[in-house]
Amino acid sequence: MSDPLQWLGTALALAGALLIISGGHPQTLIELQTAAGDGLVVIAMLGWSGYTLLQSRAAPKASLLARISLFSGAGALFSLPLAAMEMWATPGVVFSTKALSAYVFAGIVPGLLAYAGFAWLGGKFGSVRTSLVLYLGPIASALLSFAILGEPPQLIHLLGGLLILGGVWASLRR
Predict the structure, then answer these.
(1) Do 83 and 103 form a contact (C-beta atoms < 8 A)?
(2) Which residues fall within 8 angstroms of residue 90, CB to CB, at 6 or more apart?
(3) Could you say which DSSP state residue 96 is in?
């Protein structure tokens, strides 16, 4: 990513994401207070970054399905110890109809569809350009907050979204 337009695009997308995350209040980012789950989010982010870099390098000639299977299997193995602890501690919650519906949804939508889409984009555009898709997360969160929680998007979401979309567009230009 040596093109100045790509650097500008990345900066714009990051600024848009930070604008949405902070709600337009930079002080929020400066006075960052962490919760117990924040460490898990950082670990997940690092894991996703590793996945992005490895997916095209680990098996460059492997088919899309083979790469998805490889990384899904690795993810399942890493999740197994925590899943076993949760099953042991709260079997009634883990083995319920409500939990089953959540497992099926999570397996199909953010699991299979997201990983397949990300792997396809990585094969077509490369891992660096594909990673820009992650900047769309705050936009999706704002839209889902409206759809699920009834929280209407505000002007800050629109401005941040425009910065993100403009930044992703600029970064993908050759």
Answers:
(1) no
(2) none
(3) S
CA distance 19 to 23: 6
Cα 145 to Cα 150: distance, rounded to the nearest angstrom: 6
Lookup: tokens for 48: 């996703």
Cα dihedral value 72, 78, 84, 86, nearest 10: -90
- Mean residue pLDDT of the chain comes to 78
Question: Each residue of 10-24: pLDDT tens digit?
Answer: 788 878 878 877 778
Q: What is the largest CA-CA distance in the chain?
A: 55
Q: Is the Cα dihedral 115, 48, 9, 4 positive or negative?
A: negative
Range list of H helices, the chain:
4-22, 26-30, 36-58, 64-89, 91-94, 97-106, 114-125, 127-130, 137-144, 155-172
DSSP summary character for residue 61: T
